Fold:
Amino acid sequence: MKTEKLFVLILIIFGFSAFLLAQNMNYDKQFRMSYEAFFHQDFITTKSDKPGLTKVDVYILVPYKNLQFIKTGQGFTSRYTVSVAVYDEKKESLIVEKTWNETLNVIDFSQTTSKLNYNIGLKSFELKPGSYLFRTGVVDNDSKKEIKSENVFKVRELNSDLDLSDILFVSKSDLPDNKILPNISRNITLSNYGLQFYYDIFSSDSIIKKCFVEYEILDRSSQVVFKKAEEKKINAGRNQILEQISDLRLDLGTFILRVTIKDENFRTINVLNKAFFSRWVGLPSTVNDLDKAIAQMVYIASPQELSKIKDAISNEDKLKAFLEFWKKKDPSPNNEENEVFDEYFRRVNYANENFSNYNEGWRTDRGMVYIILGTPNNIDRHPFEYDSKPYEIWEYYEINRSFVFVDQTGFGDYRLITPLTGDLFRYRY
Structure:
């Protein structure tokens, strides 16, 4: 199915994902929610037709696989509700709130779980320049699951003579009627379409016929790894700009796209930055650092298998060996999902979020047991016993085993005192 209804929307301000973790004992639900954002969000400031105001476009992207679909006469249907409330920065006053419903219909059930399908919604707000708190909520109307996010966003005042809107990354631009497909997750695989992005240049003076725009890409250490400058012919009013940087090679990780606009006298008018994630073909978005992901395979790969991957000469060879390892583990190679891969790094992510202290969570004893054996059937916690150090007992009914962790230091460093033995010291799906 072509999910053409789809697409128009957002990612969280620098960040990236929106999720709220419930403080309960249901590790599976808590884990899945924290591992992949239930929805993505983006905020784009652009020129308003109303004097003294700035238009803010708020995009909300919800993957189909995060929603509950109900079988209907024509296929499968999902309904969810979105609300966006705008407060002053101190959360003392509600400025405006918009709520709307979305309905998705698909014919085949496989479409409901595909990573390729998602729905994008867009709402616009007219606001005075300043800082605001945007509170967003998405409610699945059937499962009643509700996810919320809060983001402080600065609404800027656009220069009345010459300025540009915020940057919107683009997944695809060769759509009918000159439409574009926004990239709200900011996960960009350069070999697909290069780095594509969209913005508007606004000019109030018909005499101004040109300006200069400079593009830079900065790595995580703020070093410029790409630079390009162009002269732009412009007209009075709105000038739509769709850019594509091809033949760009970037490492895996986070980068900044910087766009600088200068007037015809080369005077800098504005500088805008926007973060994105550089991905490699074949490498899922759950992996942000290939070398670290390889190290984290210690609980599923043999020393010989790890050495083979680590010793690859180039990054391309290392990636190829990495993917070949996981392909062999795929229990259902005929579909697009690799359940073992997804589950393994889902556990790694959960361990990092919940068991980290002075070591990353995946390196801790609790992280090790969680990654190898998964969610315990029961956890008996004793954090405040007057006659003993804090400890936890994890029970796994299927293998008839219990594991005791003791916090010897009082700083959350729980050590396993009933070690894994024999064939338990390998990942179980």
In short: The domain at 1-156 is CATH 2.60.40.3880 (Immunoglobulin-like). Residues 330 and 337 are 8 Å apart (CA to CA).
